[in-house]
Design goal:
alpha+beta, Methenyltetrahydromethanopterin Cyclohydrolase, Chain A, domain 1, Methenyltetrahydromethanopterin Cyclohydrolase, Chain A, domain 2, six-stranded mixed β-sheet, 12 strands, 20% strand
Length: 342
């Protein structure tokens, strides 16, 4: 009888790649499939690479899935699942990660306002760790010694060489080792990558509430994928509402039941003073200034916390189909079989 040594299999396992190295490899895979995924590469004169997932490029679902994976440094699996309820006739964006701090807080969180002259975009992706200036990164003590910097910008234009140079300088890397992925919310890929932030919003909310994120072992999230809106404000509204009123996140944690019961009710979006109306209306109310919106609003509609120490689960919040219908339901025209055959 042959005996397999599990010990040797464990001791020879490879260490995880650095975040920017993992994201860079995903960008290389995108280049190899650029035509099929309708992504347009732009090599700037200073050597930086801009991957267009939806500004001038058509993009699509596969482009959006890869953009979301790049944004999470390959530390999560993202997929489109068919809907199993009337909440989302457009399907569900499912996110699963066993490395939520690296995938969400060190990578996906949009914590870098990238601005120069008239250009502005919120920056996500592992390039943020190379920059290392955000409070959340310093608190969690995350770092990356990669020679590359990979970022995701939500914007309607292709950044020029001066933007790429600024990003490279702030990240301390050569500009030719900089990759910038861009997509606006009006695109399919841009919409998908925003809706893929369900787990990230719950992690950031817990961080702001003072919960020890190192106790979070795994995370899974699902949110409906709305149709892209032609209007900028409506696009931001729909993608946010998908999570605020249609997102359900499950986190597996090591904590006490008392800790969970104390913090749990504060996590869902309904704990916010701005909860209860479509985000586009909230955005307009604050004169389109994100910083005036209650930060506590940006979290999933519902969260389930599974305590690995006690075996108990706790659920807080609720899904709000009525608000989703106000936000993007009116764009869905349903024709019954009887009407179609008439």
């Amino acid at each position: 009888m042959n005996h397999v040594s599990h010990h040797s299999a464990i001791t020879h396992s490879a260490a995880p790649q650095l975040l920017n190295d993992s994201a860079f490899q995903l960008c290389q895979a995108t280049l190899s499939n650029a035509t099929a995924w309708r992504v347009e590469p732009n090599r700037l004169h200073n050597g930086a690479l801009v991957l267009d997932f939806g500004v001038n490029a058509v993009g699509g679902i596969n482009a959006g899935l890869m953009l979301a994976r790049i944004c999470m440094s390959g530390r999560a699996e993202i997929s489109i699942c068919p809907t199993n309820h009337s909440l989302a006739p457009w399907g569900i964006v499912q996110v699963v990660t066993d490395d939520p701090i690296q995938a969400c807080m060190a990578s996906q969180y949009a914590g870098w306002p990238v601005k120069k002259d008239k250009f502005f975009a919120m920056g996500s992706g592992p390039m943020r760790v190379k920059r290392g200036k955000e409070h959340v990164l310093q608190t969690l003590n995350v770092s990356d010694t990669s020679k590359s910097a990979v970022g995701v910008l939500e914007c309607d234009s292709i950044p020029d060489a001066s933007i790429a140079e600024m990003i490279a300088t702030e990240c301390g890397v050569a500009v030719e080792n900089t990759v910038i992925c861009v997509a606006p919310t009006r695109s399919i890929a841009g919409t998908l990558q925003v809706v893929a932030r369900s787990v990230e919003t719950s992690m950031h909310k817990l961080f702001e509430l003072g919960f020890d994120l190192n106790s979070v072992v795994s995370g899974s999230g699902a949110a409906p994928l709305p149709p892209p809106a032609l209007d900028f404000v409506q696009g931001i509204g729909r993608t946010n509402d998908a999570i605020l009123y249609g997102g359900h996140v499950t986190l597996w944690v090591n904590a006490t039941d008392e800790q969970i019961q104390e913090i749990g009710p504060k996590v869902p979006s309904l704990a916010s003073r701005d909860y209860g109306i479509p985000f586009a209306k909230t955005f307009k109310k604050y004169e389109y200034d994100f910083y005036k919106v209650d930060p506590g609003l940006f979290s999933p509609a519902m969260i389930t916390i599974v305590n690995l120490k006690s075996g108990r689960s706790f659920r807080y919040g609720m899904l709000r189909q009525d608000i989703l219908e106000q936000s993007f339901g009116e764009s869905f025209v349903e024709i019954s079989n009887a009407a179609a055959s008439a």
